[in-house]
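Q: I have 516 residues here and want to know how they pack in 3D. Can you give me a structure?
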Amino acid sequence: MRTPTPARLVVVSLVALTLAGSAFAAKPKVLPETPVLPGLRVDGIEVPRGSDGAAEVHARRAAFEGRKVRLLLAEKEIRVATFAELGITVDEEKTLDRVRAYGKAGSVLERVEVAGEARRGEVDVPLVLAVAREKGVALLEPAKIDLDTPAVSAKLDLEAHATIAGKDGSYIDLDATLARVEELSRGRFANGKDDVPMVTVAVPPRLSKSFVDSLDVSTVVSEFETHFSRGGEQARRGKNIDVAAGKLDGLILSPGQLVSFNEVVGDRSEANGFQKSWEIFKGEMVEGVGGGTCQVASTFHAAVFFGGLDVLERLPHSRPSHYITMGLDSTVVYPAVDLKVRNPHPFPVVVHTKATGNTLRVELLGKSKPAQVSFGRDVVATLPFKRKIVEEAGLPANRVVVKQHGIKGYRIKRTRKITYADGTHKVEDSTDFYPPTTEIYLVPTGFDESRLPPLPESGVGEDNGDSTTKKPSTAGAVACAGDCEKPGDLEMVEGRGVHAPTAGQVAPQRSVTMQH
């Protein structure tokens, strides 16, 4: 069966010319005046005599757009979708125009020949297709996100003194895959079993094993330690520190390379190895997945700070941390709040993290120690905290639960001085703000708030940095640890995850200087 072709040379006998001339004079059936040539087909289906082709084109459009395609990856079915869902549709109007116009142009002889071809079933008009590739991309993008495999660079196992080989990544090329679908859509089909292998591209790792083998890590560029607990409710937090530290260990920062803590450690989910633990959320301690990751980020930040690396993005916590000096901490929340650093040194720097017992240690290793770094911190303002009372139905009349201890707010000035081997130096100044942490009490319904300890006397608004705090009392009531016998006794208990603030949080030193 032939599809429509341009006009071609036709050799017609004298008898045929005579018949044609007389036929047109008397308007016989050689060139019938019908909307569609008799016998003409549309996408393999014959248009019935006398039809204008509209119903047939519409039917072929529905059949085509509803045809299902199986998308495969390594012979495994990934997605089944119709041509329409993949952005390939039929332009019904243009197809119908082509069907009705076929055989209506050209010389009389050419039209006679085409009419004969149509009657013999030799003319099949293809569908006019419209392609919206962006629709197919949107449909397949979720599968691509799930199936793409990032390359894994080779890394150092600093404890075993060995190199762990990297792995190639694999990425799905959606444009090339949809181009295959388009090729399929313009061909013939067999029993609805249309399979399209998805196109993948192999991506080599950024750092090869040979490069990692050649690294010089003979010198400790900087180091920093923090401490934590693994007892009781802190056990899961300790596990999260182990997980985050393990993901950071062996990280290689090439000269000029920017590194995101969140990208390296990944999302704080149980699927990524993290557990539920206590963490700060919107100024309050809550139970969430990944608590403890901030301590790893803070310890890493301190090592980076004293290693003279560039800190491009970093935020302090919403309150002073108990495990690190104010001004050296770094809060991280996946994926929005990140710690980003860059290696300005002319040699690669390798991160070595190790959580042993209750100590987290971060070392930066490299070819040499390029600079001496000092840290200075001054408290320039102190702000009082507020109190929040929440009535809790069901609490005994003499029991109060401390849901959160109040901590003053602080504004501090941070200074980093970097002195290089050639004697040159640079000084970086910045300001951190730690807002006051609200004191929260859960009390029985109808409780007399005057029975609570008074707020610390710290003046109105910002004071002069004096961090002296008055010890709380029960304002006439007697606090007891167990069951209370007297009506005036007040039992003060701490809620889950609550810990009294440390001296460094309650009364930090006005000025601190550290050098590594």
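Q: Anything worth noting?
A: Confidence is low (pLDDT under 50) at residues 5-29, 459-479. DSSP finds eleven helices and 30 strands in the chain.
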